[in-house]
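User: For documentation purposes, I need each entry recorded in a consistent format: the amino acid sequence on its own, followed directly by the corresponding structure tokens. There are two entries in this batch. Please keep commentary to a minimum and don't merge the entries.

Assistant: Recorded as requested. Entry 1:
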Amino acid sequence: MFLPRCCLYRGCRVAHIALVSLFPVVVCAHVLAALQPSAPLASVQAAIDAAPVGAVVHVPAGVYRERITIGKPLTLEGEGWERTILIPGPQSNIFPAPGAMASPLPDGMAEAGDAVNRKPNAPADAPQAAILVHNADGVVIRDLRVGLVQVRGTPEPPLFAALRVADSRVSVVDCCIAGDFERGVAVSGVSDLEMRRSLVTLTERCGVSCVGDDTARPLLRLLECDIRNFRDTGVGIVNAADGTAIVGSRFTGHGGTALECQDCNPIVLDNAFLGTALLGASKAPKERNRRMLMGISFKGESAAVVSGNLFLGLRIYGVVCADTSRGVFARNTFCRSESAFGVLDRAQPIVDRNIFSGNRIGWQDLGRTRDRDSTEAIVAPAPVSNIFWQNVLHAVRMVPSVADRGTSALEQVRLEDTLNLVTDPMLLEDTASGFRPAPGSVAQRLGVGASRLYLESRWPDLPEENAALMEALKAR
């Protein structure tokens, strides 16, 4: 549809108003200031406030230092993540009146909220964000960057989030979120966030958090995103709605756990969890990298579908299932990790048609008894129809030792020969091929392992990422 850009010219105020009822409206922050020079409209927030419902607020190239609040359906678009940059300013988000928000953040999620220059109607402990979207159904944010990394030693604490979504439906496309936020994106309440082709990097704690409770379960969909160089967690999902999905995304760089799931049922398809890859897309030597610890951790009563993923070079686990978690783990490829797949507590995952190659331990049931004096083991389902190759230990289960009856001592039982293959999967181990099985290989014929991965990042290394890596290396 043709979008009238009459507001781009100073003399078109009347034409702009006349077209409101016929076309979507495009509002520019700098033009609003030109139309009303006496009013404080030279800001993104002023343009948002002046825009009608359903408008397209176009933010020209430049650096904007402010925090903005969106409480109505509209589109906020920049001119590309490298050209339109929003840096959070000192003012607070404009919150609704006390009690107006349907679902505040759960307990424990507000510890990072700052206390600078709060508006009178902002709750005292309200977490702050560069962009706050609340009670709005149909917000689109695209083609801009949020955040710049502070100079080392800056006393200001990191903001709670670059983007906070509360009780809203939001789509984020082709955006970059970088640095100095406790969380890159925080989703809560009855929300629906779809994030596509976007980069989240250098966050202090978590790249993307999606946290619900018994009364409100938010929905999250990450599609073709890069989540990298997070300190603790790449994506944290707790009590999320069914339909939450992580698809075609890339987790890499230094950090803790790429994806943590608790009490939810996510779909995790065709992602790359790259513990040995350097920051972003760089081809620099791997020994310079601080490796990611774990790929995915499942806790609580999670029941996931995990398929078509690559877990490469993780320092501890590719996947670990704990508590009473369960799910189906099929057609994944686990390479060169300390322990590719671990089962703890009472977890009951189904593991079949995966490739385990070059790990210290392929599949591992860490063993547990019902109580300290019992010899009755809680047994996880054995792996079936997998391919094991060149692991130090292919598949082992720790069970109560017969020799130490009456104690909790455990011993190893090897399982790789039980309904599995020990053969070369013939992986194409290069970035372009994505560690897929070679055409005509046993793995390819049997449909085992990941097959649709592309490991090249669509995002270049940011200068701040390289600087952060050098600082980390100096501190070691």
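Entry 2:
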Amino acid sequence: MNLAKPLLEEIDRPGLSVNERAVLRCRLARNLEEAGDYEAASEALAELWQGVGSRPMVAGLDDETRAEVSLRVGALTGWIGSASQIEGSQEMAKDLISESLRAFEQLGQRSKVGEARSDSRALLFPIRRIRRSPRDVKCSTDRIQRRRRRTKGYCRIPKSFYRKSVRPIE
């Protein structure tokens, strides 16, 4: 990915604080997650998270960074747990995303609240079980594009959504 290399170089910079390094790792994980590379996104957070089934290590981080790490770990737990059919992963993902949602609401960060809500909706409505025609997906994305023009916040749809869910009608 084009954005991964500069972020990796910036993460390795020696003068960064723990919070700055964690935020950069979350940004890298989000970029990889949007590209559909969930395992690489998990590896990007390896310093903060041991994998699906474990909570992130957020001791020493400020509230905003703690919420961001919880959001990324929750989203990845949901995607990886769903793909690997890991027992209890969806519930843990929902709990982590809910924690981050409450923290962002307390901090007054409306864009992050929207992102957390978008991620929690994606967990509640598993995309890979849907059978849609390309025409239905096109209509859905057109509606989202129209809504984006009217509102400041919008729902993220990972690029991997289109590859996994679009199947011809039988």
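Summary note for entry 2:
Residues 4-125 form a domain with the Serine Threonine Protein Phosphatase 5, Tetratricopeptide repeat fold (CATH 1.25.40).
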